[in-house]
Protein: RNase III inhibitor
Organism: Blastopirellula marina
Amino acid sequence: MERRWGNQRIELTIGDITEQKLDIIVNAANSRLAGGGGVDGAIHAAGGPAIMEETRRRYPQGCPTGSAVISGAGKLHAQYVIHAVGPIWQGGHAGEEKLLQSAYCRCLELAAAHDASSVAFPALSCGAYGYPLRRAAEVALKTAILWVPNHQQPKLIRFVLYSESPYEVFASVLEDLTGDS
Ligand code: AR6
């Protein structure tokens, strides 16, 4: 599914984010940038040790929740990996929505600053961090929809969902936010 605004677009797809051939792949990292499971494990496994070596060297103090940092992409088919730290879901009253929004926003700022024309996002915080999928999809897609008309880059923002059921949730939210044209 996709929605277009001039020469820019938001796309939803089902797949493994490590196989995406876009300029930037976003990682669902933790604040210590220590690696882990899920997307993080898959990205470091597929990208090789160069990514962790670089993040350790450049960001020894890690990355705060709600923010993101950028590195090279090792062996992945991308120029950069952005390591975004989404919030751990704690029931919704601990500022989770703002933190998730700022994590997505920071990724888009970094992508634009590196003149990247395409970026692939996973569903940040929706696995180990337990953020309810529909609420996370609303934050993710609203942030992208607000970004697109006000910025030249990236031209393509692709959300890569791991299976059918998160894809359906993102698709339903994107329809609700943009109409089902
Ligand atoms: N491609 C696309 N999506 C994936 C993939 C993949 N290869 N693997 C998992 N997903 P998670 P979080 C989906 O747990 O919730 C790590 O240990 C998954 O089904 O990767 O932000 C880090 O080190 C889910 O919908 O990220 C942190 O400690 C979504 O991606 C912590 O987990 C995000 O799941 C971050 O947790």
Remarks:
- Helices lie at 38-47, 50-58, 96-113, 133-147, 164-178.
- The two ends are 11 Å apart (CA to CA).
- The chain has one domain: 9-178.
